Amino acid sequence: MDFDLSEEQRLLKDSVEGLLKTSYDFDARKKYQAEKGGWSKGVWSKLAEQGLLGLPFSEDDGGFGAGSIETMIVMEALGKALVVEPYLPTVVLGGGFLRHGGSAEQKAAHLPGLIDGSKTFAFAQLEKASRYDLGDISTTAKKTATGYVIDGEKFVVLNGESADTLVVTARTAGGQRDRNGIGVFLVPANAKGVAIKGYPTQDGLHAADISFTGVEVGADAAIGDPENALPLIERVVDDARAALCAEAVGAMDESLKSTVEYLKTRTQFGVPIGSFQVLQHRAADMFVALEQARSMAMFATMASDFDDAEARANAVAAAKVQVGQSLKFVGEQSIQLHGGVGMTMEYKIGHYFKRLTMIEATFGDSDFHLRRVSAAGGLI
Amino acid sequence: MDLSFSKEELAFRDEVRAFFKDNVPAALRQKLMEGRHPTKQEMVDWWRVLNKKGWGAPHWPKQYGGTGWSTVQDYIFNEELQMAPAPAPLAFGVSMVGPVIYTFGNDEQKKRFLPRIANVDDWWCQGFSEPGSGSDLASLKTKAEKRGDNYIINGQKTWTTLAQHADWIFCLCRTDPTAKKQSGISFILVDMTSKGITVRPIQTIDGSSEVNEVFFDDVEVPLENLVGEENKGWDYAKFLLGNERTGIARVGVSKERIKRIKELAAKVEAGGKPVIEDQKFREKLAMVEIELKALELTQLRVVANEGKHGKGKPDPASSVLKIKGSEIQQATTELLMSVIGPFAAPYDVHGDDGSNEAMDWTAQIAPAYFNTRKVSIYGGSNEIQRNIITKAVLGL
C-alpha cells in the first residue's frame, strides 16, 4: 500500500503543472479558445515537446511506456487549468484504441503523428438514440470486396471539427442493440462522404456532428475484431472515464481553492464572509466531497489495470458515480458561495462549473453508472 | 502509488482473519451481527483472549506491551475485527487513557495501570462531558481542590459510556478556577469505588442504558493520580481526541452491516419478490457501498500519511473520516429499517446489564437505527469536525 508518487511521477506532475502555470492562465485560455478549431496549436506543440502526448505508448512505439497513474496526473493538471486542447480525444481515446487494439501497421501509421503533435483524433461514438449505451449502434459498416462502406450519423464528437482521424464505431452485423457485430474503424476526416458540422460546447470545448454517407475504407481500417469490438470499446472508454474522473478532481480542487480564496477576501457586513459559519461548513462539505472523489479517481486509475473486465467496469462505474455526486455539489456550491460574480462569464469559477457539468454527462452520468453498479451486485 | 496491500500485508491480514475465525466465541459474534449488546463478562473474556495473543493493546509501542505494527497493520487489524465481527479493545482504556498515560504519565503510573488496561483488569470510562459542557468542553466545571495529600472532587460528568461496568474513570477537572478556560484543567484518574461517587443510568431512545451520569460529592483522590502536570490537562485531552479520529470511520462495521442487509433483503419479500430485487432499493444500497469504498480509500490515504509522519500526529483530513463514517453508519441502519418495514415495530426489553436477548433479532433493527444517531454527535460532533476542517485545512 503506497499512495505516494514515485520520483519520476512527481517530476511529471511538477513539469505539467509548471507548464500550465506559465502558459495557461484564464486570459490565455480565452485566446486559445479563439483560435481556429477552438484550441491552440502552440500549446499542443508544447505538450508534445514535453512528451505528454507520448506518455502512455510503449517505447517501441515511440512513447514513454507510462501507466494509468501518469495519465491521471496529467488529466488532473489539465482539469485544474481548464485546458481546452484535445488530450482526451487524441491521447486517451484515439491513442487508447491504437494501444489496446491496433495492429503493428496501424500503430506505425498513426502513432508517430499523434506523439509529435502533428495529428489529432476524435472518437465518433454517440448516436441520436444510443445515449450512454456503447453497444447501441445504428451506423453500419458493410463489408465489400476491398474493405467497408460506412453509413450513419454521429453526434457531439469531441474535437470532431479539428481531428485528422476519426475513430468510428459501426455495426458490421446484427440489430441496433446487439452486443456482437460491432466494429471500430479508422476513418480519415477528409474521406469522401464524411460531412462535419462543428460547434462550440457549453464548457468551451469544440465538438461536431458528423455524417458518413457511403464512406469507403480499406479492410485495414478496422481496429481489432470488426465483428466483436465491444469489449475493446468498453476497455478504452473505461480508461477515458477514469481520465475524466481525474480531470474532474483537478477542476474541483481548483474550484474549492478559488472559493476559499473568495471567502477570505470578499467583505460584507464589515467582515470577510468566510467568518460566517454557515459558509465555513459549506466549504468544509465541499472538501469532504472532493476528498471522496479523489479517492475514487485513484480507484478508477488502479482499476484500469485490473485483468478482470467486469471488476474493472464495476470499479470505474463506482468512481464515476462518486465523482458525479461530488462534482455536482462542489460545482454548484462554488457558484453559490461566489454569489453574483459566480454567475458572470467574465469570472473563471463559472467555467469550472460548466466543465464539471459536461464531464458528468460524458460516457455515462451518475444515474447510469449507479444502475450498473447495482446490477453488478454492488462492491461488497 | 499502489493501492493494493503488499504480499506481507496480505499475509498479515490472513493471519489476523484466521485468528478471529478460530477464537471469537460464536455466541458473541452472533450477538454483534444481530445488533445486540454483549454482557460485560462476554466482552472481558474476549479481550483477555486477545491480550493472551499479545493483541490486547496492539497499537501501543512495544515497550508498553504493544505490537509495534505499522499504521497499515493497525488498519487491517481493526478492519478484520469489525468484520469478524468482534468487540474492539475497550476504547476508553486502550485508545484513550492508555496512550495518555504512556505519553504523559510517570513511571509509577505506567507500571501500575498499563498492563491492567491491556488485560481489562480495570474497566475504564471517560469523564469529559458535563451537562453544561458538550461541544464547548473547555467550559467544564467539575472542581478538584487540593487538600493535604488529596484532591477533593465535586461536580458532575455525563454521557459516560458503560460507567456501570467501570473500575476507573479519567476525568478532566478544573484545578485553577482563576485561569482562563483551557488553562486550569487537569487530567485526573479516579477509582470508581471511591466514596462519594454515584452512577445514574441514562436510558437512550433505543431503550438501552449504555450511558450514565456520574456524580462526584467530595470524592477524595490521592494527588499521585494526577497525570502529567497540573493545569495541563487540556493538552492531554486534545492529544486523546486526536488519537480517536482515524478509528472512527468504522469501515469494517459498515461493511459487515452491508453484508447483513443483503442477506436480509434476499429473505424479506415485498410484492411477491425479495426486497433486494427492487431497483430503487438496490440503487440506494449501491450508493452507500460506493461512498463506503471512497471512505475506505480516504481512510487508507490518511493512514498512509500518518505512517509517514509518525503515529499520534493526527491529519486534520481525518475529520472527513468522522463525518462520512458516521453518515454511512447511519445510512446502513436506515437501509435495514427499509428492508424490515412494518416488522421494525415490536419493542424489546433490556436487561439491567445493558444486554438484550429476549426477542427475535428483527426487534434490534429499529433500536440500532435509533442508537446510531449518536455517531454523528459523539467524538466531536460532525459540526465540530466541520469547524476543524474550516480552520485546520481550509484556513478560514
TrEMBL record, chain A:
<dbReference type="InterPro" id="IPR046373">
    <property type="entry name" value="Acyl-CoA_Oxase/DH_mid-dom_sf"/>
</dbReference>
<dbReference type="InterPro" id="IPR017616">
    <property type="entry name" value="Pimeloyl_CoA_dehydrogenase_ssu"/>
</dbReference>
<keyword id="KW-0285">Flavoprotein</keyword>
<feature type="domain" description="Acyl-CoA oxidase/dehydrogenase middle">
    <location>
        <begin position="123"/>
        <end position="210"/>
    </location>
</feature>
<keyword id="KW-0274">FAD</keyword>
<feature type="domain" description="Acyl-CoA dehydrogenase/oxidase C-terminal">
    <location>
        <begin position="234"/>
        <end position="375"/>
    </location>
</feature>
<dbReference type="InterPro" id="IPR009100">
    <property type="entry name" value="AcylCoA_DH/oxidase_NM_dom_sf"/>
</dbReference>
<dbReference type="Pfam" id="PF00441">
    <property type="entry name" value="Acyl-CoA_dh_1"/>
</dbReference>
<dbReference type="InterPro" id="IPR036250">
    <property type="entry name" value="AcylCo_DH-like_C"/>
</dbReference>
<comment type="similarity">
    <text>Belongs to the acyl-CoA dehydrogenase family.</text>
</comment>
<dbReference type="GO" id="GO:0050660">
    <property type="term" value="F:flavin adenine dinucleotide binding"/>
</dbReference>
<protein>
    <submittedName>
        <fullName>Pimeloyl-CoA dehydrogenase small subunit</fullName>
    </submittedName>
</protein>
<dbReference type="Pfam" id="PF02771">
    <property type="entry name" value="Acyl-CoA_dh_N"/>
</dbReference>
<feature type="domain" description="Acyl-CoA dehydrogenase/oxidase N-terminal">
    <location>
        <begin position="6"/>
        <end position="117"/>
    </location>
</feature>
<dbReference type="InterPro" id="IPR037069">
    <property type="entry name" value="AcylCoA_DH/ox_N_sf"/>
</dbReference>
<keyword id="KW-0560">Oxidoreductase</keyword>
<dbReference type="GO" id="GO:0003995">
    <property type="term" value="F:acyl-CoA dehydrogenase activity"/>
</dbReference>
<dbReference type="Pfam" id="PF02770">
    <property type="entry name" value="Acyl-CoA_dh_M"/>
</dbReference>
<dbReference type="InterPro" id="IPR006091">
    <property type="entry name" value="Acyl-CoA_Oxase/DH_mid-dom"/>
</dbReference>
<dbReference type="InterPro" id="IPR009075">
    <property type="entry name" value="AcylCo_DH/oxidase_C"/>
</dbReference>
<dbReference type="InterPro" id="IPR013786">
    <property type="entry name" value="AcylCoA_DH/ox_N"/>
</dbReference>
Automatic annotation (TrEMBL), chain B:
<comment type="similarity">
    <text>Belongs to the acyl-CoA dehydrogenase family.</text>
</comment>
<keyword id="KW-0285">Flavoprotein</keyword>
<dbReference type="InterPro" id="IPR037069">
    <property type="entry name" value="AcylCoA_DH/ox_N_sf"/>
</dbReference>
<keyword id="KW-0560">Oxidoreductase</keyword>
<dbReference type="InterPro" id="IPR052161">
    <property type="entry name" value="Mycobact_Acyl-CoA_DH"/>
</dbReference>
<dbReference type="Pfam" id="PF02770">
    <property type="entry name" value="Acyl-CoA_dh_M"/>
</dbReference>
<dbReference type="GO" id="GO:0016627">
    <property type="term" value="F:oxidoreductase activity, acting on the CH-CH group of donors"/>
</dbReference>
<dbReference type="InterPro" id="IPR009075">
    <property type="entry name" value="AcylCo_DH/oxidase_C"/>
</dbReference>
<dbReference type="InterPro" id="IPR006091">
    <property type="entry name" value="Acyl-CoA_Oxase/DH_mid-dom"/>
</dbReference>
<feature type="domain" description="Acyl-CoA dehydrogenase/oxidase N-terminal">
    <location>
        <begin position="6"/>
        <end position="119"/>
    </location>
</feature>
<dbReference type="InterPro" id="IPR013786">
    <property type="entry name" value="AcylCoA_DH/ox_N"/>
</dbReference>
<dbReference type="GO" id="GO:0005886">
    <property type="term" value="C:plasma membrane"/>
</dbReference>
<dbReference type="InterPro" id="IPR036250">
    <property type="entry name" value="AcylCo_DH-like_C"/>
</dbReference>
<dbReference type="InterPro" id="IPR046373">
    <property type="entry name" value="Acyl-CoA_Oxase/DH_mid-dom_sf"/>
</dbReference>
<dbReference type="InterPro" id="IPR009100">
    <property type="entry name" value="AcylCoA_DH/oxidase_NM_dom_sf"/>
</dbReference>
<keyword id="KW-0274">FAD</keyword>
<protein>
    <submittedName>
        <fullName>Pimeloyl-CoA dehydrogenase large subunit</fullName>
    </submittedName>
</protein>
<feature type="domain" description="Acyl-CoA dehydrogenase/oxidase C-terminal">
    <location>
        <begin position="231"/>
        <end position="394"/>
    </location>
</feature>
<dbReference type="GO" id="GO:0050660">
    <property type="term" value="F:flavin adenine dinucleotide binding"/>
</dbReference>
<dbReference type="Pfam" id="PF00441">
    <property type="entry name" value="Acyl-CoA_dh_1"/>
</dbReference>
<dbReference type="Pfam" id="PF02771">
    <property type="entry name" value="Acyl-CoA_dh_N"/>
</dbReference>
<feature type="domain" description="Acyl-CoA oxidase/dehydrogenase middle">
    <location>
        <begin position="125"/>
        <end position="219"/>
    </location>
</feature>
